[in-house]
Write a structure and sequence with these properties.
mainly alpha, 2 strands
C-alpha cells in the first residue's frame, strides 16, 4: 500500500516542488529583509584575511554575543568572491545555491539506493528526488540553514559527492578541501579507512595540507593564530549548553548542569558511540551498503563534535531515505517516521525559547531530556543498524 500511495503522489512531484518553493519564497518576502546572519559573517569578515585581522574583528550581533569568523583561513579565501558582491545579491545567490545543493543531496542518496538494488535512475527515482526535496525544504536543519545563510547545505552536498566519487584522487581531495573549509568533514576520512580506499585517504590528507599551506601564504599571522591558539576553543564558536547544540557534549552538559568538556561523562559517551559505530560500520561494509556506511560515519561525527548545531544535522535526510528505500521494513519505517517528526517539528526552536539565555546551562529535567532528541535518535540508529541490515536481506514487509 505504501508503494501504491507513493506512485500516485509521484505523478505530481514537479508540481509539489514548485508549490513548496513558491510557499517558501512567499514566506521569505523581500530579499532586503532576509537576515542570514551567518552568511553576513562570511560576507563581511572574510576580507579581513587580507589585512591579517580575520580573527581580531567580530561582527556585532547581540550585546553578549559578538560573532567572530570561526572557520580556517582557507574558508575566508573561498568566501572572498561572495564578499565582492552587493549584500542583497550575495543573499539571493546563497539561497539558490543552497536549494540546488539540497536537491543534489537528496538525488545522490537516492542514486546510491537505486544502484544498490541494481535499478536504473529512471523517471520514478528522479521524481522521488523532486518530491523529497520539496518536503525537506521544511525540515528544521534545512530551514535553519537557509534562515541563517549557513554553509551546511553546500558543504554537505560537496562532502557527500566526494565520499562516493569513483576516482580516489577526486574523493580524497574533495574531503581534504572540505576539511580545510570547516574541520568537521575530516571525519569522512574514516569512511575511506573502513572501505580500504587508502589512496583516497592519502589524497584527503594532501588536500587538507594544501589548504593549510595556502592559508599561511595568504596570511601567516591569522593562520598561526587559528591553528595554534583558537583551535579547540568551543566556547568561541558559541554556547555549548544551548539546546541548539545537539552534540553529545551539549546534551550531557544540559543534563548535568555544567559544561562537561572532555571529562569522563563525555569520554564514556564517546566510547559508547564509537562501539556502536564500529559494529554498524562493520555490518554496512559487509552488506556493501555505501549509503549506510556514509551516514554512519557522519552520525558519529555529529555526536562527538564539541559543537553540532541542529542545522548541522542535514545528514538526517539521507538517513531517512536509507531507512525507507534501503531497508524497506516496518521497523525501519517507524524509525524513519520518528526522525521525520523530530526534524520536521520545531522542537529545537521550542527548547531555545525556554532558555533564560543561550549561555545558561542548567535546565529543568524535562527540557534537558528533550534536548537529547537528535543525539538519542543517532545512537538508536547506530545501535539498530546491524539488525536493520539483516532486515534488508529479507522480503520487504511494509510494501504489501
Amino acid at each position: 500500500m505504501v508503494e501504491q500511495f507513493e506512485n500516485r503522489v509521484l505523478r505530481f512531484a514537479p508540481l509539489v516542488l514548485c508549490l513548496s518553493l513558491g510557499v517558501y519564497a512567499w514566506t521569505l518576502g523581500n530579499p532586503a529583509d532576509w537576515g542570514m546572519i551567518d552568511l553576513k559573517v562570511y560576507w563581511s569578515l572574510a576580507p579581513n584575511l587580507l589585512t591579517d585581522q580575520l580573527y581580531s574583528i567580530n561582527m556585532p550581533f547581540t550585546a553578549d554575543f559578538p560573532l567572530p569568523f570561526t572557520y580556517p583561513p582557507f574558508a575566508a579565501m573561498v568566501f572572498l568572491p561572495i564578499s565582492a558582491l552587493p549584500w542583497i545579491a550575495a543573499r539571493v545567490l546563497w539561497q539558490v545555491l543552497s536549494l540546488l545543493c539540497l536537491w543534489w543531496l537528496v538525488r545522490t542518496a537516492l542514486k546510491l539506493l537505486a544502484d544498490k538494488v541494481e535499478q536504473p535512475f529512471d523517471v520514478t527515482w528522479s521524481r522521488r528526488a523532486l518530491l523529497w526535496t520539496a518536503l525537506c525544504v521544511w525540515c528544521e536543519p534545512v530551514r535553519k540553514t537557509l534562515d541563517f545563510g549557513q554553509i551546511n547545505l553546500v558543504l554537505v552536498a560537496g562532502v557527500f559527492a566526494a565520499m562516493v566519487a569513483v576516482r580516489q584522487s577526486v574523493a580524497g581531495l574533495g574531503i581534504g578541501v572540505g576539511a580545510g573549509m570547516k574541520l568537521t568533514p575530516a571525519i569522512s576520512g574514516l569512511y575511506f579507512l573502513v572501505t580500504r580506499r587508502w589512496r583516497a585517504a592519502a589524497w584527503s590528507i594532501a588536500g587538507f595540507a594544501f589548504t593549510v599551506v595556502l592559508g599561511f601564504v595568504v596570511s601567516a599571522s591569522d593562520s598561526w593564530r587559528y591553528w595554534f591558539e583558537l583551535l579547540g576553543a568551543a566556547d568561541r564558536v558559541g554556547p555549548v549548553g544551548s539546546a541548539i547544540n545537539q552534540s553529545l557534549r551539549g546534551a550531557l552538559s544540559r543534563t548535568l548542569g555544567y559544561d562537561v568538556e572532555t571529562s569522563w561523562p563525555w569520554l564514556l559517551a564517546v566510547a559508547v558511540s564509537g562501539a556502536l559505530t564500529f559494529f554498524a560500520l562493520r555490518n554496512a561494509v559487509r552488506a556493501s551498503d555505501t549509503l549506510a556506511a556514509v551516514v554512519i560515519v557522519q552520525l558519529f561525527g555529529l555526536l562527538v563534535s564539541p559543537i553540532s548545531w541542529s542545522h548541522h544535522w542535514l545528514w538526517a535526510i539521507p538517513v531517512v531515505l536509507w531507512l525507507i528505500y534501503g531497508i524497506r521494513h516496518r521497523r525501519a519505517l517507524v524509525l524513519a517516521l520518528v526522525w521525520a517528526v523530530a526534524t520536521g517539528s520545531d522542537v529545537i526552536t521550542f527548547l531555545i525559547n525556554q532558555q533564560p539565555s543561550i549561555w545558561e546551562i542548567p535546565r529543568p529535567w524535562p527540557l534537558a531530556a528533550l534536548g537529547w532528541v537528535y543525539p538519542a535518535l543517532a545512537l538508536i540508529t547506530l545501535a539498530a543498524t546491524p539488525a536493520l541490515l539483516r532486515d534488508q536481506e529479507r522480503r520487504p514487509q511494509w510494501a504489501h
